[in-house]
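Input record (one chain):
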Amino acid sequence: MIPENWELLAKEHQKAYKRLLEKGNRNKMLRALPDLHEEAFSKIDCLDCARCCKNHSPRFKQPDIRRIAKSLNIKEGDLVSRYLKLDSEGDYVTRETPCPFLATDNTCNIYEDRPSDCRRYPYTDEDVLLKRVQLTLKNTTVCPATFTVMEKLLEIGK
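The corresponding structure, as predicted from the sequence alone:
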């Protein structure tokens, strides 16, 4: 079970997570990720949460913009001007949070055409979890699945 105070625990464990991600046995962690990912998502229903859509914006790459505009039957420029902005790193992200494509029941209005970042989030079955330490640390405080995976990795790393 995920503790009720998981967000607080995630904040308290930031240093331990960082140490593990930077100094832990990468091969051992990589081997464990697929099973830990499956275990976490067997307990967590994203539709009950949608914290990622409420707190983050994915990057919208050009293929994403093209695909989403086509599915919405609007011009790419209209999609960009209505919903997106350039961030400090030069990536297109949503103008606001929560995501404008998030429905009130936590479903996604563009689910079949959603950006690659959304498809892959929270990266708990990818080496991104180990390579992008700051992103993973942030995700532990937003996503209960990332918190769960990192807690299990801490146990494995002992």
